[in-house]
Structures are given as C-alpha cells and as structure tokens.
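WARN retry 2 of 3 for item q-0093 after timeout on previous attempt; input resubmitted unchanged.
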Amino acid sequence: MSWKNQHGEELLFTSSKAIFKPPKAMRGGIPICFPQFGNCGLLEQHGFARNKVWTIDEIPPPLPPNDSNGKSFVDLILKPSSEELKFWPHSFEYRLRASLGSNGQLSLISRIRNVNGKPFTFSFAYHTYMSVSDISEVRVEGLETLDYLDNLFQRERYTEQGDALTFESEVDRVYLSCPNPVAVIDHGKKRTFVIRKDGLPDVVVWNPWDKKSKAIVDLGDEEYKHMLCVDGAVVENPITLKPGEEWMGRLEILVVASSFCSDHLDLQKVRF
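OK item q-0093 returned
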C-alpha cells in the first residue's frame, strides 16, 4: 500500500476514494493478481488473492542470501480457504517476500507451490500503481519493438513503433516477452522508476484517462493524471504447475534521479 523514498515522498499511488473493506479490492498500492489476471478466465477480475487476509510466514523456506542480507523484509503466506476451493478447486501455498534494500529498492518475490493432487494453471501480475506528477509528463522506455495485445481493440496484436511510450489517451496494453528492464521516466518529478523482473515475461501498461476514470467508482475523476500502472506479469502463456512443483516470480523497482534533459537512460547500467 505504501513505499516511500528517503525524503518521505510516497512512490505508490492510492486513490482518495479507495475502499478498504472486503471483499472490495483496494484501488492502489501493488495488488497481487492471482490466480487470474484481468478477466481472461472464469474468476472475478484479477482473481481473489488481492482481496484476502494474508498471514505472517514464520518459517519460510530459505531464499538465496542476497535476498536477505542487508534488507528489511517480511514473509507472508496465503492458502486457499474452503470458500476459494469451491470455485477454484486447487490447493496451493503462496509465499510472498516483500523487502526493502538500503538503497531504497523494493523487491517482491512470489513462490507458488502446487500442493494439489492434479495440475493447475494460473496467470499473474504485480499490479503496480506508480505515483507520477502528471501522466502527460511521463514516458516509458524499454518496450521498443515489442509486440503487444491492445485491450482497447479486442486484444488485437500490434508492434510498438515508438522509441518510448507516452500518454495522450487511455492505454491498456499487454507487452509480450519483454526481456529488458523498463524505465518509467517522470519529467515532472525528475525521477525514474527502473523495473526489473524474473519469471514475469510480460509487462502490462494501463492508464484509464478521463472518460473511464469518471466511470470508476473508487477513483477520483482527475486522479488518472497522477497514476500509471506498469505491471510485471504472466498473461500470454499462463503457468501450469504439476503436483509438488513451484513457480517463482520476482519484481524489483528502484527509483533514480532523472532530469527533463537527460539522454536515453542506459537501463543496463543502473545498479540495484
């Protein structure tokens, strides 16, 4: 729900009209979309994980030392209740580590294990709401030449032609098989979100713009100007886990200083 820099500035967006009472999902922060992203399935929009109460995982399986050393972290766990099993009859253990490095880097590591007697399939996303100065002052780099599915045109497949993505109207796209870091450059606040991911081939980019914002009950009419969702995701090719198998998906976000006159950001040289 909240991630701040060393100056106490909020880096994640949360709507002033967000509803904090279950079963309504909260509009903002980083909702976990599992076991379904969007409406591409039979479950509720974005699945049920984002609407559930998680518990502290007191004895999590070990992660590599670089995922622990020098970081503050919390381990959470989600298991299906009898209610979820009625409409998604698959037993799983979902472990989530959220950690903060000394440089302010936010890391989210998801481990999903099939403890069922049969395989199951899921799609996934970290639905990251970033706080921006003004959406018209933002550009996204790292998606050049990639194919994407455009949800505004019945999921038609297109190829990104620009050297960066800028915003002048509603955008709702799934960029496919993105191998590189992605940068969200906010000229107004002179800062850049650098996003790296592992196990998350796709990148979702969404801003509802003015008309759709007015139709979203838990989003202020003008709040679209101050938010942008850029998600590490698994959409095009869902994950199938056999009994006993585990999947891991990692998202890392670091905020670095940038300026309006900066050259193309060399994403490969940004040190995490």
